[in-house]
Specification:
Structural class: alpha/beta
CATH topology of the largest domain: TIM Barrel
Helix content: 40-55%
Oligomer: single chain
Shape: elongated
Length: about 750
């Protein structure tokens, strides 16, 4: 590269040379003229000298004339050289600028040696390079933005995506690879306590060594995250988007440097806790920003897809299975029972039906907790299944109750089979959390098709009644039916079934009201609604006498709807402004039409949902806490309130308080009655009241049977109270509101 100083020096030298030559020529010419002039003056005089001087000056000018064009031409050539050199540099720089069409071209421009032809312009070239680097650090590639937009457009969940989410991720990896070369994507899901699934999606088929290195790298990354400390297990599955090509063998260092990941401190939707990408080369920093944006979105999308996929599969599975024991559920049991009745009727076979109840399960559940109770039920189910023939069918009907279908089996075979099950469970022994051991026993009722009934529902109700007889006779036994039993059981069942059907048909459920008061002032703040069915002789059948049969008949939710509708109509007619407590069947709570139906009933009556309190009782008919939580949250969103009935009777009640938005705790009546003579009951009640006050939940004392109990309720600072001492249930709201404490 030449400098302008050099050009200027050359021009100065040329000017000096030109001036020297011009002076020399002038000197030579003038010397000659002077010499001749002196001679002429000497010879001819002064006039002749003047003429000779003029002539000589002309000769000097003529002699110097050839030098001037040479100097001008030299100067022009130098100017042209300088201009051409600068123009060439400017054209080259302009070409480099116009060639910048994407972010990667800026790096090429920064690495290009910019030559403006003269060293004086070098600082400009340095400034241009620095500007290019600054632009690279803040610019976002248009291609990457377009790619991100196109990719985000694919983040729409469809049935096809849910159907095969792994193929969906494979396609996303191919799209990413087109813009930013990538070896693999990976996602991490939490599927249990300290158990994780690692899904790896390879662009091309990896070698076994690359797989091993990749797994090690991800595990090392997990071990450095506090969320994964304390030990964990990882199930790994590899997926290949295009198996027609092999990726080069990966090095451990490459994986460490080039893997970008997002690890979360807690699982997101679908249990996803991390997602990452392994790129082939280190790209622009701004590209990583776009990639991390995509990964963040992909984290939620993949988590959602996995959640929907799992939810769909769970729906398919648990549509037929009980989630705790993996036995057939109640719905499938009825389908299998109907199918077996049709098959046996066609071929003239008999089959046995057994209803089995795990004795004393509630006391074990209350003593050792909900979790241990689940373990006991699982062990009982496994033991029963192990004592059955391979083609026998076992289902969990609900809570601690199981049902078994014994194909092609008469009464004798059914007796043998049920005794075998009973003996197997009697030998069961499980260690409790405190180191003790507990066992179990079965109370079993049976029926044989077609000896005891032809209709499947009648057959089941007969076996169920025999099971209750076995429990009444001392538990841990099989009730074997006789001909007398058939007449007696069906007469009782028929009477109650007819009453229930008639009550549904004629909307004959009668609401009774029991006041719930402030024990300090006697003011009625709420009414609990209780169900009654009127008999032909005018007497009332209380709920305990028909709820069990109504639930087995699948009609309890209809009775609940009728009760709610009639109670709200009466409350509006009486201009009642307080709260109404309603006991709803647990099975009704999880029905798909429960929310729409309660919304319709409340809306049509004009009674505000915020004054309706649904009571949840810890019953064994609801084990799926997630499902129950969803319905309860929906109820709260609709404006309804919630209460836990019989609080403290089991550990599950505390789970309810922890997980659900509860407004009232109705303390179990046995604790209330025991406060007067039992220190433990007083301590438990005091603890429940303190817990409720901390959580902003109001307490209700049940079973206030006399003045002494009421005084204890006041002494324990319980908010509300109800019981026979205050007022017995009555069909009149006006009477229920007329409370006079004595």
């Amino acid at each position: 590269m030449i400098s302008i100083k050099t050009i200027r020096g050359l021009l100065l030298i040329a000017a000096v040379v030109f001036s020297t030559a011009l002076v020399a020529m002038t000197h030579y010419a003038v010397s000659g003229v002077v010499e001749r002039a002196v001679r002429e003056e000497a010879m001819h005089g002064a006039d002749t000298f003047a003429e000779m001087t003029s002539q000589s000056m002309f000769e000097v000018m003529v002699a110097c004339a050839p030098v001037v064009p040479v100097a001008i031409i030299a100067a022009l050539l130098m100017v042209m050289y300088i201009r051409r050199r600068i123009d060439r540099a400017i054209r080259g720089f302009a070409h480099d600028i116009r060639s910048v069409n994407k972010l990667s071209d800026l790096r090429q421009l920064a690495q290009t040696s910019l030559d403006f032809g003269f060293t004086e312009f070098s600082p400009i070239a340095d400034e241009v390079r620095q500007l290019t680097e600054r632009v690279r650090s803040i610019a976002v590639d248009k291609e990457m933005l377009e790619f991100e937009i196109r990719l985000l457009e694919k983040f729409i969940l469809t049935s096809d995506v849910v159907k095969d989410w792994r193929e969906y991720v494979n396609r996303l990896l191919i799209d990413i690879d087109d813009v930013m070369p990538a070896y693999a994507l990976f996602s991490i899901f939490k599927i249990g306590d300290d158990i994780f699934d690692l899904e790896v999606f390879w662009r091309y088929a990896p070698s076994s060594e690359s797989r091993r290195l990749f797994e090690e790298t991800v595990k090392e990354s997990l071990s450095r995250n506090p969320y994964f400390t304390g030990g964990y297990a990882v199930n790994i599955e590899h997926n290949v988007a295009d198996g027609s090509r092999q990726i080069p063998d990966l090095m451990h260092g490459d994986l460490e440097v080039q893997t970008k990941s997002l690890l979360l401190d807690a699982p997101k939707i679908g249990g996803i806790v991390g997602i990452g990408m392994q790129a082939q080369a280190s790209p622009e920093a701004t590209r990583w920003l776009v990639v991390e944006s995509i990964l963040s979105t992909l984290l939620n999308v993949v988590g959602s897809v996995k959640a929907i996929d799992k939810y769909t599969k769970d729906l398919e599975y648990y549509a037929t299975r009980d989630p705790l024991t993996n036995l057939y559920n109640q719905r499938v049991f009825w389908e299998l029972l109907d199918s077996e009745a049709v098959r046996s009727g066609r071929h003239g076979h008999k089959f046995g039906l057994a209803v089995l109840d795990a004795d004393n399960f509630k006391s074990v559940n209350d003593t050792y907790g909900h979790s241990f109770g689940d373990v006991l039920l699982q062990e009982v189910a496994t033991t029963i299944r192990g004592a059955m023939r391979e083609d026998d069918l076992l289902a969990r009907y609900g809570g601690d109750e199981f049902v078994a279908i014994l194909p092609e089996t008469g009464l004798t075979g059914t007796i043998e089979a049920t005794r075998r099950m009973m003996d197997a469970v009697a030998g069961l022994s499980i260690e409790t959390p405190d180191g003790a051991r507990v066992g179990s026993s079965l109370s079993i009722g049976m029926a044989v098709y077609p000896d005891h009934a032809v209709e499947t529902r009648d057959l089941f109700l007969f076996a169920d009644s025999m099971m209750y007889r076995a429990k009444a006779e001392g538990k841990g036994r099989v009730a074997i039916p006789t001909e007398h039993d058939v007449v007696e059981v069906f007469r009782s069942l028929s009477e109650k079934s007819i009453l229930i059907l008639a009550a549904v048909e004629a909307r004959g459920v009668i609401p009774y009201y029991q006041p719930i008061i402030d024990p300090r002032t006697g003011k009625v703040e709420a009414l609990e609604v209780l169900a009654r069915i009127r008999l032909e002789d005018g007497t009332m059948l209380v709920a305990d006498a028909f709820v069990g049969i109504a639930e087995k008949m699948g009609l309890m939710h209809k009775l609940d709807y009728i009760l709610m509708e009639r109670a709200l109509e009466a409350a509006v007619a009486a201009n009642y402004q307080g709260l109404l407590f309603l006991n709803m069947s647990p099975r009704a709570l999880v029905l798909n039409d429960f929310i729409p139906e309660t919304r319709r009933i409340a809306g049509s009556s004009g009674f505000e949902p915020s004054r309706i309190v649904f009571e949840i009782t810890e019953r064994e008919t609801i084990k799926n806490m997630v499902l129950l939580e969803r319905f309860i949250n929906t109820l709260r969103a609709e404006g309804f309130r919630l209460a836990i009935d019989d609080f403290g009777s089991g550990f599950s009640s505390f789970h309810y308080v922890k997980r659900f938005p509860i407004d009232f705790l109705k303390i179990d009546g046995d604790f209330i009655l025991g406060m007067g003579h039992n220190d433990r009951d007083r301590a438990l009640v005091r603890s429940i009241v303190a817990l409720s006050r901390e959580l902003g939940i109001r307490t209700v004392a049940e079973y206030v049977e006399d003045g002494e109990v009421l005084a204890g309720v006041i002494g324990q600072s319980i908010d509300l109270a109800q019981g026979y001492h205050i007022r017995r249930p009555t069909a009149s709201i006006a009477e229920a509101l007329d409370v006079r404490l004595h």
